[in-house]
Amino acid sequence: MSPRLGWRKFVSGFMLTMTGVCAVVAVSVLFFILGYLVYHGGASINWNFFTKLPVPVGELGGGMANAIVGSAKLLLLASLFGVPIGFFGGIYLSEFSNSTIAFVVRYAADLLNGVPSIVIGIFAYALAVLPFKHFSAFAGAFALGLMMIPITLRSTEEFLHGVPRALREGSMALGASRWRTIMSVVVPAAYRGIMTAILLALARVAGETAPLLFTAFGNRYWSHGLSEPTASLPVMIFNYAISPYDDWHRQAWAAGLVLLALILIVNIFARAILSRGGTVLR
Amino acid sequence: MATSTTTVPSAGPAEDSRSFLSRLRNGDEIARIITFLFAASVVLITLVLVLQLWHDSSIARHKFGLNFFVTQVWDPIAEQFGALPFIYGTLVTAAVALLIAVPLGIGAAIFLAELAPQKISDTLQFFIDLLAAVPSVIYGLLGVFIVVPLMRVYIQPALKHSLGFLPLFRGPAYGVGFFTAGIVLAIMVIPYIISVSREVLLSVPRDQREAALALGSTRWESTWKVVVPFARGGIMGSIFLALARALGETMAVTMVIGNSPIVSTSLLSPGYSIAAVIANEFTEATSQIHLQALIELGLVLFLLTFILNGLARLLLVLTAQKGSGMGHV
């Protein structure tokens, strides 16, 4: 072996090892995050955290019950707004559209998907807060719903495209109308993929903070109805983390742990749905 | 693509003669119209968003003109609004983030696509996907309580000691600042670079690698001199996507950048970013011109990410075409 070849082999081995190190470093960040959250937040999670309201500054204890309910409210409303638009829009793109319209809609959806979340917040403020002159759960859900639309739309379209044409032709040969075919043959065949996409969209907006800062705002008490300022876990984490109080920091860690656990569980569950029964699509 | 399903013949030659009404009775026409409305609303929403930003910043745009981008005084009381510190902070933190994230991300992507066995690659990719799902406020939380103290006590003093002769590392070690924000941003965008780059690398035709190996190159040479250049466009696309994310990122940056409108050559100095100032001042803006100035910043952010995302998509599409084109040769 010439020294030149030896050197080249050494460089090859060294660089390939370095790429492995990069991968390990990148993945280990996830475990650092989980570890720190469990270490700092685990001790502060107790029954009170889930059932009590926040207490005034200076008092110890209290919980984030209102923020947990608030987040659930916001996410439910956001799905009611974002999922139908994305889902039916996706059906149109895949089943009815001509290519020019499809291009325009897809382009708009990709554009919307790339808009920074803080800018979505500004938009929702202008449309859903200013006209009514108060922060509300509606405004927050509007902002989150906007962020769910592009993900739902593009994945519905993609998974419907994956359904074999023979299925459609079979159904129509039996005399079913186009719409009947879509709803009882095509959509069920792509059902898992679409569910996965909706769950992932939900998990993504569940952690969004920036669009809620000036739409749902926040609340230290229960919010009654949907047109009052509403607390949410992410905004609570933000406010507590930048506060000067140790007890609030503890609760921020606990809330962070709860939020991340929920998001990761939904993510894992969503991916499991897809991988278990992708046979119809492949 | 989209038209392939519309060509399924539904009524044969009788199609033309059927009246609009009879098609309506069939239900298909109604379904088409209703789903069209949903699809059209996406375009409408996006248009309204752009117009709203444009309209709601019109007074600020006319009053400050281009001075908005080059002056440094941001004083809501005196109604003086110069956005330079925010634009500077946004660009500097994003640059620091990319300097760290690009080599790490591409290295990891090479490992996942070229080296790791399928099973390990898929498992690691699964963790990377989970990492991408971690919300930015969580990164902010860890930034405030873990990264900032670490920077203040260990890393920044060490940087000043070893590289203090550079103007980049001067001034007191506050912990918060451009450098810290850049590092947190880097950690946040690495998953995007890895996922997209890995896809692009995996789409490089196999014969490219085999040809290089057959000519006697080592594994690394075939990767670095053949596979990576082949995928260069797509990798650039992943970097633009990451840059767009980094520019628009709000919460984590707000929590660690220090929130002081300072333009400084030192990376250790506290700073401010576009997204952070919007997050901090929007609810407290009392005068109309203050609100308009903030919305104009939002418009700037929107345009920046719009251009970057567009470029990224173009590069990714071009690379994908190149890959599939070569595959058929």
Describe this protein's structure:
The complex is a heterodimer of chains A (282) and B (329). Chain A has helices at 3-41, 47-51, 65-96, 99-114, 117-129, 137-161, 165-173, 178-189, 191-206, 233-241, 246-276. Helix content of chain A is 73%, strand content 0%. Chain A is globular. Chain A contains 11 helices and no strands. The N and C termini of chain A lie far apart (48 Å). Chain A has 282 residues and is mainly α. Chain B contains 14 helices and 2 strands. The longest helix of chain B has 40 residues, at 288-327. The radius of gyration of chain B is 25 Å and the shape is flat. The model of chain B is unreliable at 1-14 (pLDDT under 50). Chains A and B meet through α1, α3, α4, α5 and α6 of A and α2, α5, α6, α7 and α8 of B.
Write the layout of secondary structure elements.
The complex is a heterodimer of chains A (282) and B (329).
Chain A: H1 3-41, H2 47-51, H3 65-96, H4 99-114, H5 117-129, H6 137-161, H7 165-173, H8 178-189, H9 191-206, H10 233-241, H11 246-276
Chain B: H1 20-26, H2 28-56, H3 58-64, H4 67-70, E1 74-75, E2 80-81, H5 84-115, H6 118-133, H7 136-163, H8 178-202, H9 206-214, H10 219-230, H11 232-248, H12 251-256, H13 274-281, H14 288-327
Antiparallel strand pairs in B: 1-2
Helix pairs in contact in B: 2-14, 3-14, 5-6, 5-8, 5-11, 5-13, 6-8, 7-8, 8-11, 9-10, 11-14, 13-14
The best one-word shape of chain B is: flat
Reported for the largest beta sheet of chain A, the result is: none
Structural class of chain A: mainly alpha
Distance between the termini of chain B: 22 Å
Shape of chain A: globular
Secondary-structure-derived class of chain B: mainly alpha
Main beta sheet of chain B: 2 strands, antiparallel
- Poorly predicted regions of chain B are 1-14
Percent strand of chain A equals under 5%
